[in-house]
Structure formats: structure tokens, C-alpha cells
């Protein structure tokens, strides 16, 4: 699992496997220096205050938003509505 965590990148789709938010999908915002992953869903956890999750409590999906990754890397303004729309699009791709 640790190898996968090193590969995590902003804009990647993840879902929670532990806690009150089990089953909720998020986009990765960044990886903190203490090894935790900062995630947002745009609804319950907005981009202005991302949730800090232990990587052991996340499932990492191969779906990835190039657009969001670029905007997060450039520190461009990203709205919660855009994050929710992007998660919806990634989930449509996931379901085939």
C-alpha cells in the first residue's frame, strides 16, 4: 500500500474506507508533509478546508482529473461546484 501512496497526486479520485465518511468520494488536493492526504468533495469538505485523511483509510482509484491537477498545481481558484462536477465526471468514467 505504501508504494501506491507515494504515487498519489492532486486531482486523483479516492474514496474513504474508514470513519463517518466511509464510501464518500473525494479528490486529492495534496499530500501533507506528515504523510496525510488532504482531500475535498466540494460539498461536505470544501476546497477552503480540505479533510486530512490517513492514506490507510483511503481507496485510490485510477481515475484522475488532469484539469484539476493543473489548476491545483498552479494555485488557480477552484470552486466547490467545479470539484463536485469533476467528481461526478470521474465517477461516470469509473462506472463505465
UniProtKB/TrEMBL annotation:
<keyword id="KW-0687">Ribonucleoprotein</keyword>
<protein>
    <submittedName>
        <fullName>50S ribosomal protein L14</fullName>
    </submittedName>
</protein>
<dbReference type="GO" id="GO:1990904">
    <property type="term" value="C:ribonucleoprotein complex"/>
</dbReference>
<keyword id="KW-0689">Ribosomal protein</keyword>
<dbReference type="GO" id="GO:0005840">
    <property type="term" value="C:ribosome"/>
</dbReference>
<dbReference type="InterPro" id="IPR041985">
    <property type="entry name" value="Ribosomal_eL14_KOW"/>
</dbReference>
<dbReference type="InterPro" id="IPR008991">
    <property type="entry name" value="Translation_prot_SH3-like_sf"/>
</dbReference>
